[in-house]
Amino acid sequence: MQEGSKKAIVAAFTANLGIAVSKFAGFLITQSAGLLAESVHSLADTGNQALLLFGSKRSAKEADDRYQFGYGRERYFWSFVVALVLFSMGGLFALYEGVQKFLHPHETENLPVALGILGAAILLETYSLRTAVKEARHIKRKDQSWWSFIRTAKQPELPVVLLEDVGAEIGLFLAFCGVLLAHFTHEPRWDAIGSIGIGVLLVVIAAILAVEMKSLLIGESALTTDVTKIEQGITSHKMVRHIIHLRTEHLSPDEILVAAKIEFDQTLSMNELSITIDEVEALIRANLPMARFIFIEPDVARLDSVN
Question: DSSP letter at 172?
């Protein structure tokens, strides 16, 4: 895991742990449904950061006979688990709590305490989000939108933290508005509506994360820019005549598998061809160090060459 990703996760873990404790204390004092939903949300987020760190540690294990390409996909798997936790422990609980309080409403007690805790939580969550944005900018292209970054990023931790933090910020404002409306209108169902809104928001974010992590788990190809670097490395060798086809797959955020069928100069002897293939592999890695596993098959281009 890159240092920036780890820094963003640690910042989110620290902020969410403090927020979860303060929100739950606030719920015990005020009995606010929004605060309870938010405390469970923050507790889920804290656990999620721990899962991301656990996944990073697991992914660093050396390859063995059973997993010969290594454990890099552990980071994708645990990020997928994070989406499930956010959906169940965060979203569904907030929806359940909101519906219950809507059907059986009661007044929120001690408004200043509720607002004070929510305000402090917004500040802490802003710090976490600011850290995630700052670290993401190190790998995000300047001309790339944030949505595009989340959709295409191969490092799962930063998109997860970014979406969690954005969801948390919006959820806090929903809870804040719900508590205020419930107090000034004397209609406690506004607080319940705030909790329901938080639940819907978390379910949507969890669904987005699940779809993106599923795609990475199945095996996404390298980015177009990285494929171009691989092609440039191959074609830069004077004995390469043609790339018949090229396949890539991310085994982890920092490891790419490359499989290529290439037409070489047909005057090469078997020994010369073997040396040339080694040289092409070196050129690929020089252009793209992430290309850890490279398999090259020499062939002759034909009209029906598709495999």
Answer: H
